[in-house]
Fold each of these.
Amino acid sequence: MATESLTFPSTLDMNNLPILRIKLNTPPLRCIVEAILPKLLENFENVSAEVVQCPDLTKSPFNLTSEGLCGDENVFDISDVTNLIPSIKREKLYNVKDLKQITGSDPLVIIGACAGPYPFFGADSECVENVKITGDHVENGTHAFMTKSVDDVAECFHKSLPDNEMRFSMMANFFTSNGIKGEVLKIVCEIRKGPLNFSTCIREALVKHFGDEIIALGGVILIENGKVKVHVVKPSLLKIPIKSEKELSNWVHFFELSPPSVGVGCIVSHDPVISINYFYKG
């Protein structure tokens, strides 16, 4: 494992960066069910959606750092592709601990996707963020995924981050909460028959039902059957200049994951603005 270069830029304090706070629409969960069911039924053979009490997400197969998803829920969209195009901005290094001061939440649970801490690995990576901060105590269940080439064939591998490594690079999409149990949506879809995937179905359904109102959902997805196509960044992004978003696929390898697999993240119906650093307040 690479050690951090003494000349590498220091971590930015997100509390000192521009933050745009937006109040989201938070309709009852039963209204979300009514909104998303028609679109899901158009694209999957078997669909159910209901409001249930959240199971214990610390247990298998989820293995999150918190039991639930409720309490002071927020969705963060931190930076954007301008940190990648036309070249990587290595100085864009952040720490998820800053979100605790921004939200004022204690405990604070953070799940979602981000670019991994380049100084820690000495290579580019993508992270499945899974962190719980209670007071000064940190429980870090984050996994970083990287690629390497063996005989010109890309291989994917992952490493767990230690509790004291809280940094991420360049951009992130996070769902945060107090991590307590409560009512959640349980959505089950089987046998895809239409052109839209699961997340696109939900996003388009929210736009159709709620119009210009911004709706955000955060949580965990369990894939029990079928394969999922995912991407992981190539070992060194610096070697491949990118001129536009259309060329971003040149930076990643695509893989098929076999079940079971678990994902975390958030879905936002549509972007309200374009901004370098902002978060949605639920």
Amino acid sequence: MGTGQVLFHRFYCKQSFSSFNVKRVAASCIWLASKLEENIRTLRRIVYIFHIMECRRENLPLEHLDTSSKKYLELEADLKRCELQVLKEMGYICHVELPHKLMVAYLEVLEAPHQMIQEAWNIANDSLRTALCVHLKSYVVACGVIYTAARRCYVPLPENPPWWELFDANKKEVDEVCRVLNHIYSLPKACYIPVCKEDGSFTMCRSLDSRSQPLAKEGTSSGDPLMLDDANTRKVEAEAVLKSKEHVTDEKERKRESHNSKKDRFRKGKGARWLSRGIDKK
């Protein structure tokens, strides 16, 4: 879950919430994270879980998803395209280092009590609701979580020398982590607000039912956003095909030129000598 949340934050640091379906991106990030952490879950299971969550959160009747239906197959295909879009935005660099492991090691060095360790673990989970995992290093976030947990549990930490310097952290960055963590606990209960200009549902999406509509031309100024399976994705696929064809053509031209140059060198070198010998013999 933590790896999926980090991938989710990284993706939306480059893209807009209004352009991509948040629920489908979240499902794709969880699916990709299960592969990265070698704890693989099938796409069918992830689709079922997100479908049930959406129905419960929005007080909708729970409908059975038929795995052989057209709607389900289109949903699976859209999630696969979404996963490729996430990988493309990250340049296929998906290494994630969570602050949890470092935090536990730091707490063992500081000989923290069990109550503080449990509190720090809870705060580390809540920190993934923010973009700290994107803006700061994991060891800095771990130090900020420890500092917040120590204040909550009234556990004194060594300050002479400062304990955070032992873990190569900066006091200014640690204070920034504490500020962000205190802010999220002052906010009201989180609720989902649909901001995507397309249908924000997980199971149903207008882009799935608009396959027959003409594709948007490049350079148009229409207000409709490009979803994962609309003109934007198809344009990217078309550009990739054109680039591959151009690469093949350039490779053929390069080989042809190399072959011709070899023939010319042969005619001017050994070929010329052989021809002259043949003329002399005659």
Amino acid sequence: MGIFGQSTGFDADVENATRESNTKEDWSSILDVCDKTSSNSRNAKDCLKAIMKRMGHNDPHVVMQAITLLDACISNCGKAFHLEVASREFQNEFVRLLGKAQPKVSARMCQVLKRWAEGDFKNDPELNLIPSLYAKLRQENYYDFNTTNNKPSKTSAKMPSASDTTANSQQEEDDLAKAIELSLKEVKNSPKHSSAATSGGVNQYVSIRLLVASVF
């Protein structure tokens, strides 16, 4: 495993983010690792070493989590991390692990490699080893990159922006207004519409508003 078998100060954090007992991806721990890595460019190498150690784990569940963590770091930790990934050491280790991976793990590795090569690493000469590795593996026709799902995973998703939050709030307000309008129409069109019915409509308006507010 070369340099990727060495222990680093990130081992505990990465192991926590890729625990065998996790029933789903631990995004809180994953983002903690990303934050710690991006806080100092010198952390990139140690973080990558720790992740690659977990990618060599015997449990495929751990390996899948490690791939998710690696993809998240590539999406969020900047150029310093990209340079560590675009190294000969990483390329050799990635190919070694890909060659022994189970089909589901292999497909996931091909998926993220394709996205890296066509995305963050595509137009930077300093990162050329990743597009070159992708092209080489495709040319060999040993791995099928055409059937992998190339949609961005949750690891590449950003946290909701202020504009997203505003849009969601506006949608909630629109839904509330529609519910109130329908309620008042029903009261108005009722055969027994009277002052008492009007009073009931106001009460129903309040009930509808409270009901919708509780939903949102």
Amino acid sequence: MSPTSWNDWTASKWMPWCLASVAIVLIPTASASMPFDTKPEFIKTCRFDQTNFVDCSTESVQGLFDKLVTGIEGLEHVGTIDPMKISKIRILQGDGPVSVNASLSKVVVTGFASTKVVRNVVSSKDFGWETHIRLPKMRLEGNYHMQGRILVIPLNGHGKCWFEPSGMDIIMRTMTDLYQKNGHVFYNVTATKVDYTISGLRLHMGNLFEGVKVLEDSTNQYLNDNWRPVSEALKPIIAKTIEDILLAIMQNIFNQIPADYFVADLPRS
């Protein structure tokens, strides 16, 4: 079996193999609001016509990630990304090697403070962008309720769980349209696509099989020992989960912060 291909967020954010589909109500999309009156100091402004545009854009996106770790004053509906708190994740998958009906609640995700933006390329044609993000380690903790199977492994229980993917490389492709509001150009983020690899995964689910300790311990051990094929089977639903989370976050951010703060020479109608 070939190594699993994330990215958690990411992402990521962004994630662990148990994620399948995210209720969008977790991170509500902001309604239209006034842009920031002046450009925040943490945003580095770049231009398509400068020779080092990719390096400049990469530095600008890194600055945004760094600031999101502590939170951006005035940015509505987007809290800190480390820790990132998610009220509920619903997991529904009934085809192929995965058949799961489950949910995660009171989820806390940590590790994004160490996010490294390796490269960010913005298209001068359609104005979408491709971002390569590296995350050394992420941890997700929460309460789970699960019934189903993964590969040939039956899973039934409810309780505490944690997951730790490591060595995470994420490629995020973002599609967007431009529009003008209040004298600025804004991004209308319409879709995200992600691909990812991870180099390791540790996990634990407590109270599996209604507290039958022998089955719980042996199942957790098996999943940890065989994380590669388990992750490979779950890759499509993990990728979709990451896409949903990142899309909701970016729609919130770029609905409020003008795009021309990041790229000064975006076209105007």
